[in-house]
Amino acid sequence: MSAVPAPSVPTPVAPAAVAQAAVTADPELAHRARRRTVRLVDPAGRPLVGVSVRVEQRGHAVAFGCIGFDETERAWRRLSGRTPAPGEDALLDRLDALWFDLFDTATLPFYWGTFEPERGRTRTAALRAAAEHYVSRGARVKGHPLVWHTVAPRWLEPLPDDEVLRLLRERVRRDAGEFAGLVDTWDAINEVVIMPVFDKDTNAVTRVAATQGRVPMVQLAFDEARAANPAATLLLNDFDMSADYEHLVEECLAAGVRIDALGLQSHMHKGAWGRDKTLDVLERFGRFGLPLHLTETTILSGDLMPRDIVDLNDHRVERWPSTPDGLDRQADDVVAHYRALVADPRVQAVTYWGLSDHGMWLHAPGGLVTEDGTPKPAYDALRGLVRGEWWLAPTTVTADADGRVQVQGLPGRYAVEAGGAWHDVTVEEGDDAETLVTVR
């Protein structure tokens, strides 16, 4: 009797080597990591077996932003011919280097009253120079804001309401169109909840908002900006995290306003929100199914503002320094806040409202860097997340028998190098997928 041959057993294929960021081992954030398989082939389609592959991260999908007001003022100073103060440019260079070492999205000031302090005389050239400064180095740029009642031009006030509305429409069209392709994300309108009832000063925008109503003001801003730049991402932005803002969003959506994202301000001068409030805000505003942008985040490194202050602008002090306890508290609060935000896939952007204490709103110690350009513990802690734990360090892996390697980390832009050439790879939300790379 002839022997019966043993059944053949398929040779197991070893899993592709994985280049992965440290975040994949974090029990709180591992669910945000995604995996992308990269299959490398030669021009004939044959897998490149055993080749050495270099993997690097180039950017996050979540926008980690900060204001770029210092660079805007430097551009304006240069264009106007003003001589810098001693050491001014050196300090700004240091702050600029710290900015790019952590952030990737700049918010620039388009407050109408300072952008066009005299009718017809705008700071377009300065804002364009600042925007190009960031874009030329790979950063994204956002404009803030197209419509707001505060910092409105004084020259508007004597004009009749119909003329104010006409000029407001023109302003939105002009600037959204002028900067299209350079600034493609805008706070289309800012703080609408309080806009028609604002009583801290007189201004023409509040006056027309009181007669037009909140939703028509939002519609005006979005319609004109969209007409000028159809590709723009347009935000409704507010500091009011109460049900009043929720109701405004509901009314705008019911009226057919196409909101691309909701802007949520988080100036924490009276103390950090904490995890419970942060998650509550994300849940209440996340229910609309719109991307969430934390547009204005401030966390203090000094004494906190008294709890009984309602309008933060009412708190004025001669000096507001950092304190040893405050510096430690700020670092802890920044880490906790950013971790809670990045864990939620609805959050697409987080913007810190001021790199340094120099020029900080209300002179508060809210910067991540001191006035002389020294990083605070909070800067180092946040950088340790954004460019450390959440960033894939340059890694070399070997392609398997099918020419595959895998990239695992937070959604974002990555690149692989094989055969002396770099190839872009995007790790996206959703299911695992494969990217085919032809190495010539």
Describe the structure.
- The protein is of the alpha/beta class.
- The strands form 3 sheets. Strands 4-5-6-7-8-9-10-11 form an 8-stranded parallel barrel, surrounded by 5 helices. Strands 1-13-2-16 form a 4-stranded mixed β-sheet, with no helix packed on it. The chain has a 4-stranded antiparallel β-sheet with strand order 12-3-14-15, with no helix packed on it.
- The longest helix has 19 residues, at 324-342.
- The chain has 11 helices and 16 strands.
- Helix 1 (69-80) packs across helix 4, helix 5 (161-178) packs across helix 6 (204-212) and helix 5 runs parallel beside helix 7 (214-228).
- A hairpin with a 2-residue loop joins strand 14 and strand 15.
- It is globular, with a radius of gyration of 25 Å.
- The protein has helices at 69-80, 88-100, 112-115, 124-135, 161-178, 204-212, 214-228, 243-254, 274-286, 324-342, 377-389; strands spanning 17-20, 34-41, 52-60, 63-67, 105-109, 140-144, 185-190, 233-238, 261-268, 292-299, 347-352, 395-398, 404-409, 412-418, 421-427, 433-438.
- The termini are far apart.
- The protein folds into 2 domains: 17-51 and 399-438, Immunoglobulin-like (Sandwich), CATH 2.60.40; 63-381, TIM Barrel (Alpha-Beta Barrel), CATH 3.20.20.
- Helix content is 32%, strand content 23%.
